[in-house]
Design a protein that fits this description.
Layout lengths: L3 E5 L5 H14 L10 H8 L7 E7 L10 E13 L3 E11 L8 H15 L4 E4 L6 H9 L5 H4 L9 H7 L3
Parallel strand pairs: 4-5
Antiparallel strand pairs: 1-2, 2-3, 3-4
Length: 170
């Protein structure tokens, strides 16, 4: 089992984060949907008013190991607001490289995001998962999450691209 630390991402991590975003998209069978670049991540996450925050899971090498630390997972989150519950945190992505799964790294990332949520006065930590990703759903339920599709019947929708521009009258 590898020793891993969870830390806040730094601007210099953007290349590794993008690589992992692409791996996640491939895992989710949605590779064609990734349109951002490393510069977008830098501009949107590390400016004066960041659109997102990110944690990385970094392997800690053994003493004398010539290879330095390696980013093996990430959790990208941002703050949202519920008109019923107030402050919330939304975990947009959580991903751990396949060879590092089953070692509690995903749980550590989620727990760290929960810590941020509590520290910021959030009442909920929200996330979404594809309906076929049973392993992730089982993890979230084991950690105490409620499946809102089962419990309350919620469905997620989105507007994007030309449809969104048309709605905006542009």
């Amino acid at each position: 089992m590898v020793c891993v630390r969870i830390r806040e991402a730094k601007e210099g991590d953007c290349g590794n984060i993008l690589r992992l975003i692409r791996e996640l998209a491939e895992f989710e069978k949605l590779s064609d949907q990734v349109k951002i670049c490393e510069e977008d991540l830098r501009a949107d996450g590390f400016g004066e008013n960041p659109f997102y925050h990110c944690l990385v899971a970094e392997s800690v090498p053994d003493l004398g190991d010539p290879q330095g630390p390696c980013v093996v997972g990430y959790g990208l989150y941002y703050f949202i607001y519920s008109t019923w519950k107030g402050r919330n945190i939304y975990l947009e992505d959580i991903y751990v490289k396949p060879e590092y799964r089953g070692q509690g790294i995903g749980s550590k990332i989620i727990k760290k995001v929960a810590e941020v949520a509590v520290d910021k006065g959030c009442s909920q930590l929200r996330l979404s998962v594809l309906n076929w990703n049973k392993r992730a759903m089982d993890l979230y339920k084991a950690l105490g999450a409620q499946d809102l599709t089962e419990v309350e019947g919620w469905h997620s929708f989105r507007f994007e691209g030309e449809v969104m521009r048309k709605l905006a009258g542009k």
